[in-house]
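User: Show me a protein chain along with its predicted structure.
Assistant: Here is one chain, sequence first, then structure tokens.
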Amino acid sequence: MSLWILAFGRWSEYYLEQRELRVHELEELMQSARAIAMARPMDEWRSRNAGEPGELAAFLDQAEELKAAIDKSKNNTQ
């Protein structure tokens, strides 16, 4: 459940940043979810043996990559 919350929170954060919005409660929720989800290493979440959680880890990775690309783009324009 914590990885699901983290993944959807990250996607929400991505879309909010597109509108230049931030939600403090979302950031707090994601911090808590990350702390719980990372009790299990991401390599385990990504493993083929993880089944659906493996797909969920890929979903989270996509959001992380998009956010990193946007952050990089913003830093290059400054």
